[in-house]
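Record type: monomer structure entry
Structure origin: computed from sequence
Chain ID: A
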Amino acid sequence: MAKDITNNSSEEQSENEHIHDVVHVNGLYENWFLEYASYVILERAVPHINDGLKPVQRRILHAMKVMDDGRFNKIANVIGSTMQYHPHGDASIGDAIVNMGQKDLLIEPQGNWGDIRTGDSAAAPRYIEGRLSKFALDVVFNEDTTEWQASYDGRKKEPITLPVKFPLLLAQGVEGIAVGLSTKVLPHNFCELIEASIAVLKNKKFEIYPDFATGGFIDVTNYNEGQKGSRVRVRARIEELDKKTLVIKDIPFGTTTTSLIESIVKANDTGKIKIKKVIDNTAKEVEIQVQLLPGTDPGITIDALYAFTECESSISPNACVIVEEKPNFLSVHEILRICTRQTVDLLRQELEIRRNELQEKILFSSLEKIFIENRIYRKIEDCETWEDVLLTIDKGLNPYKKQFYRTITTDDIVRLTEIRIKRISKFDSFKADELMRGYSSELAKVEHNLANIIDYSIAYYAELLKKYGKGRERKTEIKTFDVINATVVAANNQKLYINRAEGFIGFGLKKDEYVCDCSDIDDVIVFRRDGICVVKKIGEKVFVGKDILYAGIFRKGDERMVYNLISLDGASGNTMVKRFNVLGVTREKEYPLVKANKASKVLYFSANPNGEAETVTVTLTPSTKAKIKVFDFDFSEVEIKGRDTQGNILTKYPVKKIAFKTAGESTLSGTEIWYDDTVGRLNTDSKGKLIGTFSPEEKILAIYKDGNYEVTGYELTNRYDAEQLLFIEKYNSESIISALYLDVPSKTYYIKRFKLETTTISKRFAFIPEGKGNHVLFVSTDNKPKIKIDFAKGKYVTNPTMIVSMDEFSEIKGWKSIGSKLGTNKINSISRLEAKTTVDKSKKDDGYAAGSTIELNFN
């Protein structure tokens, strides 16, 4: 028993000692997690600044370079070769290869590699092939300037980074999620990156913006050099085929035709837009047809597609890269500068390596010539030992050693002993001199390039642009987008009902009073008899308070909606009147419009969309001491103020009733309408050109370069083709339009003057003959327009400048008339001449002054 007890105590002591050796879990977790996070950041998800590649991409390119023999390789084989360097599964390698191949820059694909536009996946790796592109072979690889390391199992060597002489990171773009951070660099245009690198070397300013293979539009207003927190908006290219059909030609970056169509169908199902059907005709080019329901406005539908579907999306770049073994957040400009400096450094290294090679070739060629021409090889015939041989040759070279750029070593002498007798017997001194002159000439060129490394680098970039830039022009058009108000463009997919007594509103109260059509994203403003105003989100059934006087759709910032109100002040007994706007509110918050008192209440209320001021009849109580017990009141006598104003005293006597008498006109001035040519839209924010002040019935005239005109209302949802729009102003039915246009088939210029005879709203009419390329050069609605025309130099041009009074040159005819022939001489520019306010009669003067000049290009 004693022995057993002793053994047990020793075992317990051993266990206690083991417990003291245990490391706390907290410490293990901190260290291991930090190591894991560092590994994911450095070895998986984030690209390196030197070559712009993630480790898997770098290993794929290295494996393909090792396999490269000029022929295509099965991607399955490439995956297998890459696994010698990449310690992860074949699926991640395969996905990375397909992603690189679809970018069409480093890998030349063959077979079905999928389609980034439609979202179709690539065929299995055993069915597709690829090889390194010529660009990759020229720009990415150079064993002499590559730093190497052992692969994960020590059997192979792999590059730490590849010596890429191009801003590859910005050209390809990258996206990755690591532990605690992510990176997203958008792809940029190949040609623009090269031009920007040249600008960096020339110390000039530059700008670079994203460019996507899917095309479309991009708004870079908030790009901010791609820094953290920046944002870009991308849109599909939507064209109006006719009044019943829209066509989507390009899709935004990050979407596919499949996801885009699904988002359109979903928006239609939820009532945000109203369409008949969507047809996907995508083949070589993207083409998605959106057929509209009868009576649907195409312009508003385009806005709704941008607001409610994937036709518009927002992207937030976040450029995080590995710099000196640490993640850094940089701007794309900083990345480009670093890549450009690295390219210069790599080119310098290559030149220095080539210089050393040439110097060695010249040195050995000189040694060989001396060795053979001076028959030094004959002197070693009597040598008995190897040391004697080397010493004899060294002595023979002594008279010439000063002319060499370095000391002659034993290895140099050993190489001389390895020259074959056949070469010695056929040695041609003239050819040797020619060869050394060639080496010397190339060496001088290399030395010159090293001394002028910046010029050499600029030439290198220029050659890249010339060799590989064709077909890589910008695909995504840079534009400034307008801000679309979703509540304005949303289709009315619901009906608003009201239960005044119980205090409910909503689109589910179908047995109650109908108010108006609405959208399910609208806000509703409500006024109650107790003088409370509240704005609430529309719903199926929403309680807003009993005794509802008015409910309607609330438009934030609508200055033309004016509310007329007469109320009883319970404290003083006075009857108050006021007119006010409700421009901005906090949803669900109740705002009092009358003084807080139990007896206070609203006696009369009206909502006026255009600031109308009606006349009402006020009847006082019979017992009042007032001499006039019935009188009329015109609301136009009251100034429009804010919601919180107390108003004016209408009467101090008790009121029996107030009744509507007659409708009035708007007391507001016309609406100032501006046209912003950057987005092709109207606005009331003083952006762009002031078109004029408009009353409700007035219209806008727009004339386009292709010879079409249209008359439209001044709704802010109107769309105008900014690139084609030549002229826009307030429409005047009495105006005479004077136009100068080119008939391309006959190469003849015409001037015509006409009155508009067709004014169907929002329908375009062509006022010049049909013909490919026919276009308007100048248009005016002045009564007597006068222009100065400058002609291009030509054989038959006798007078390079011509002043034309258009009202005298051509009579007023019908809008379909051809007009009066001006001539066939090519026009360079047209200047509009304006009438002078004062004329000096002592000088010959036509009473006109030069106005703005329109620079034209008619090639």
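Annotation 1: Residues 611 and 666 are 5 Å apart (CA to CA).
Annotation 2: DSSP finds 19 helices and 49 strands in the chain.
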